[in-house]
User: Fold this.
Amino acid sequence: MKSSVFENSIKFEAPKSILKSGKIYIKDEIMYLNDVNKGFQIYNYSNPNNPVKIGYINIPGATDVAIRNNILYVNQATDLVTLNYNTSANSVTVTNRIKNAFPPKVSPDGFMAKEKQNQVVIDWTNSN
Assistant:
């Protein structure tokens, strides 16, 4: 993905189907379910027996989240991004980005791509 597109790719969207579920994080009555390298499905978790999808945060390259004082800390491929998720308005705002905080992604079979200038590897596809 072009770096300029990558850095402006985070947005709140309507709920969608998860392609590959990853880590789960629960904070208060909100559950974040990672869609590996795609983003996070957001659920109202006030009733654990009946979680309700409320939205999706599109974050290409994301695989993990930590939350402190209602600030989300997300790894977005090589960058550490801090977000403010407004539960009332169902909106997300990027508050900070630390570029190259993490090493480049490595494929599931151990392959490391040579990133072209001004591009970031966010995911891998199977060529078969």
